[in-house]
Amino acid sequence: MKRYDALVIGTGCAGYNAADRLYSLGVKNIAIVTEGRLCGTSRNTGSDKQTYYKLSLCGGEGDSVRELASTLYGGGGVMGEHALCEAAYSTRCFMRLVELGVPFPSNEYGEYAGYKTDHDPRTRATSAGPLTSKYMTEALERSVLEHGIEIIDDTQVIKIITEEGAVRGVACVSVLTGEISVIGCGSVILCTGGPAGIYKNTVYPQSQHGSTGLAIDAGALLSNMEEWQYGIASTDFRWNLSGTYQQVLPRYISVSPDGSETEFLYDALGKDSLGLIFLKGYQWPFDTGKADGSSKIDLLVAQQIKNGRRVYLDYTKNPKGLESGFSALPYEAYSYLQKSGALFGTPVQRLKKMNEGAIELYAAHGIDLYKDRLRAAVCAQHCNGGIAVDENWQTRVKGLYAAGEAAGTFGVYRPGGSALNSTQVGSLRAAEHIAEHGCESENEPYYEPPRIKYGQSNIELISAELKAEMSRCADHDRKTEQMKRLLEKVSRLLDGFFDLTVISGREELPALFRLYDTALTQRAVLSAMICSAEKIGTHGSAFVDGMPNVQDGVRTTRTLTDRDFSYIEPVSAMPDPELWFETLLKRQKDKMK
Known about the structure:
Largest sheet: 7 strands, mixed
Radius of gyration: 24 Å
Strand content: 15-25%
Shape: globular
Structural class: alpha+beta
């Protein structure tokens, strides 16, 4: 049996950074375990201009760590220690990526240009283009490979083995052969992304599944699992239709089963639809606070789909309302397009002028925006909640850490791009804690596989049914009674999971354990959503039982979930740590002794 001091699960931005940081901190008996080195969200997703959020590093506009922390904390439902850490570490982590070769734009004097993203009061956002997280992943991967850190590929972790509340190792299954093995370790950093596999309507890449269930099964708490981001995305090739994709004003087409078409946004909103489509670029995530504004588009798109119709974005022709010219646009949209030199032509022609890479991206996946429409839906894009962690990104299970989207460090809202900063900060904090406190484990991990039933497989059928029901009643438009019935259904499945599921052969073992992980996560998400629906109601991205958002002020609580039981507790205040230089200098010298 192989044994390591620490294991990292996942090969995205967080996973590679965790391993790279552990190595640089002197923890070198480590390995990365992944079911697919080239899979996952970090390497396979983006947007028109994928954002990285950090402290302002250009111009004369003032900023500070405490101001950035206050912005993150002001999203609501956020723990103070997480907000402060993610602000304080942001520059250090960003500059590390720059040194590794991620091509963030800077001027000739070394200032890193910024722009304003959603929920951002300043201009802290930056980007390396549509594939920022891919560039980050590749740069961090190069560093890991240069260090010679072992990557155990094609291996799916199916259980985190614990003893007396502490990590002892992991059990794995080969995605190629179905063979089960055990690896010993003292610490695990879970960097497997968000729970991508729980919905039918999702913009997560098909190679991304998530492994939140591993933490649930190991005994970790979850935080804010009802808090998500949803938005309009293409579904044949999964990609966020944010930013320029909306600002060039595509047509929104609804097609009935018999093939008849309608521009449903114009039919419902008239010329106001033009301004709202433009705003959807800035305000891409669905927000119940904007249900009478740009998020009205999400509700109308979702309603068309629930009525059995298909929705497409068409870039080949201008939408209704522009027949008389661009003077029909509201001032903000007109001014933006004018400054961009794009007051002409069709949506795809404007897109070429403003962001040609957005066209090339789809062309690389066989979709020609000069002639092809994009089938779209309101899709799950990011879970703002996740596994509950402390200020060191450690769960309540000793030796089990979570970083990146797997960790529940955000709440109701977050600035666009803050998730990429979180991948770097959380994994660094975990690595520092492991390096300082040790991670050796002498006890041999023991794992007894469950008894599996073989026959005519029902895995795909069960999985598809649960995902469809989650998208039907537990996405941005939530129905409390339907969620309760679905929770009962998922709970019954889990109560007798290995008696109720059947696989055709060992090659389906990875899919079987993936379904178990997904069902554990769906149960926890439903529990959190029901608790939130009954105690908070409509807020953030959660439109509950058709009721309006009447929330007043920033949310000062969070929802914790222990397997299938959820409850509300206050969030922690922003820390007020020591800042006197001489005191900190002495503390540092004492550490070095």
